[in-house]
Write a sequence for this structure.
């Protein structure tokens, strides 16, 4: 166990459940570095997890309070906790791409619409890898998977013309960022900013899966070559565009599908009120008999 693990995580959960070459550990470490960098401890933060690879990796690892929700429902649990807990108690959620952009998308959008004070870390391995490698809402076009054996011919949420972060911004999120799990201090700073934002924040981490995406979509099991494809496909660093139309290490997926850079996508802290504080203010007003109608401000 390294220093961060000893400080923040349960010893019996280390090492985690990730496959060899998986980038989930990198994502996890970025979160821990951000928490430490903000001077937060185990009693300052509640950690919630979803399902799939991302949820299984982080479930019950945090030494402090934690909880889990399945199939996109972690946001509903987190919303209730946000109402009940004091503002200074932070809530961080680690979810997969299915939890965030598939079955859980409606719940996620409602959190953004309300600007609920949560930090959502999306660990995206570009498909439903924990159930065998089926394509998901962010799988690249053309990818061969268990459920698209002739190549994926379907628009996803991750591309130059249709980006899920644009949808989340339009829905009302006040902090959004995107990184590779391979990114360094810049990704840590994004997580720190997300935690500090007094509203809905989401950091989208794309990470390599060697077991399914590498082996099937890229026809490549070598960890180094899979990582090289991710660097080429998603650019060399924050602000760098994705690669051109050339191929990655395998013959199945080109690298030209992503044309935007990495880093902070949208930052507007304080631009919208946090929903949990709105509800608390409204409750106090009603308790004083100051509830009002929509137009007149008078009690209906």
């Amino acid at each position: 166990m390294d220093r961060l693990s000893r400080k923040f995580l349960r010893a019996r959960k280390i090492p985690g459940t990730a496959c060899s070459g998986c980038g989930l550990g990198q994502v996890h470490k970025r979160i821990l570095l951000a928490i430490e960098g903000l001077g937060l401890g185990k009693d300052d933060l509640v950690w919630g997890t979803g399902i799939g690879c991302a949820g299984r990796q982080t479930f019950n690892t945090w030494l402090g309070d934690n909880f889990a929700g399945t199939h996109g429902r972690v946001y509903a649990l987190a919303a209730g906790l946000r109402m009940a807990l004091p503002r200074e108690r932070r809530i961080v959620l680690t979810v997969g791409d299915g939890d965030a952009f598939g079955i859980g998308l409606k719940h996620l959008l409602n959190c953004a619409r309300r600007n609920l004070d949560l930090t959502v870390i999306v660990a995206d391995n570009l498909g439903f890898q924990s159930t065998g490698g089926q394509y998901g809402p962010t799988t690249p076009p053309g990818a061969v998977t268990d459920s698209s054996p002739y190549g994926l011919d379907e628009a996803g949420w991750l591309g130059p013309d249709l980006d899920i972060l644009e949808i989340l911004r339009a829905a009302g999120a006040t902090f959004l960022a995107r990184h590779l799990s391979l990114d360094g201090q810049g990704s840590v700073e994004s997580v720190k900013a997300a935690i500090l934002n007094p509203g809905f924040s989401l950091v989208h981490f794309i990470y390599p899966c060697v077991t399914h995406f590498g082996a099937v979509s890229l026809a490549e099991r070598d960890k180094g070559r899979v990582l090289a494809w991710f660097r080429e496909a998603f650019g060399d660093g924050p602000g760098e565009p994705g690669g051109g139309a050339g191929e990655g290490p395998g013959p199945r997926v080109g690298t030209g599908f992503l044309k935007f850079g990495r880093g902070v996508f949208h930052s507007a802290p304080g631009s919208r009120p946090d929903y949990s504080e709105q509800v608390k203010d409204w409750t106090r007003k009603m308790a004083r008999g100051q509830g009002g109608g929509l137009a007149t401000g008078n009690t209906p």
In short: Confidence is low (pLDDT under 50) at residues 237-252, 294-300. The chain is about 35% helix and 15% strand.
